[in-house]
Amino acid sequence: MKKRDLLFAGICVAVVGFLIFLSFRGKKPKPTNLSIPEHQGIKDITPRDRCIECHHPQTGTIDVSKRIKATHPEKWQDIKFSCIKCHKLKTAADK
Question: What is the pLDDT of residues 54-65, one digit of tens each?
Answer without folding.
Answer: 899 888 887 788
